[in-house]
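ok so i was messing around last nite and threw this chain in just to see what happens. nothing serious, just curious
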Amino acid sequence: MNTFASENVRLRTRVVAQLCLGAALLIVWELAATFFVDPFWIGEPSAIAVRLWNVFVEGDMLTHTGVTLGHAVAGLLASLIVGVPIGILFAANRFVAATLEPYFLGFYSLPRVALAPLLILWFGIGSLSKIMMAFSMVVVVVILNTYEGVRSVDRDLLDMLRAMRASRAYTLRKVLLPSIVPWVFASMRVGIGLALVGAVIGELVGANRGLGWYVELAAGRIDIVGVFTGLVVLAILGMSLNAIVKAIEGRFAY
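result:
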């Protein structure tokens, strides 16, 4: 009980510290825009807050947010479905992994801005191209993390299971899969931001809705408040998704 209470105290302290830091940053930003820098260049938190209220209550920002969220989450889930089995297979066959790893890293190093027009040509201007963009940003991270997770398994434990004639399915279910869970969650934590970046890049290149489209539209109108409004929504979206993943990870750890 004492441990549970102390954990709650630490949680409340951390939340209060985070809120205080956020408030301090907003105050500094507002003061800088009022006294030191032209708001045309950096916007004003007060003006952005008013715009957020207007676009969510009276506008269609909720639709744009839902579209980008759908693209990012779909790309992230697809990368997990494809990347985890490939990572396990790579760990099972080191020769294949060593042969293919340079090509995976080469693909991952491609600038996604350059890849986006090609994906739009292949998959059209609809949602699929944005999902594939998000997928391309995350899948290599999932593969490499899963590969490293399997490699980190205690070799003595695996040798013992082989000596006891444990089946491959039993070893996979009882040892390998539990060992890669932290690595998969680490991939998800990193992949959330990458998936959002991929979705937004796809929307910037060719779309008629989504947060990327909204930011591009605002920039084209030289609307700095609109640009920061879209960026703030993206930041909130990323923090919320990370909090959800962290909560799920805590359940698994428990």
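not much to say yet. The mean pLDDT is 82.
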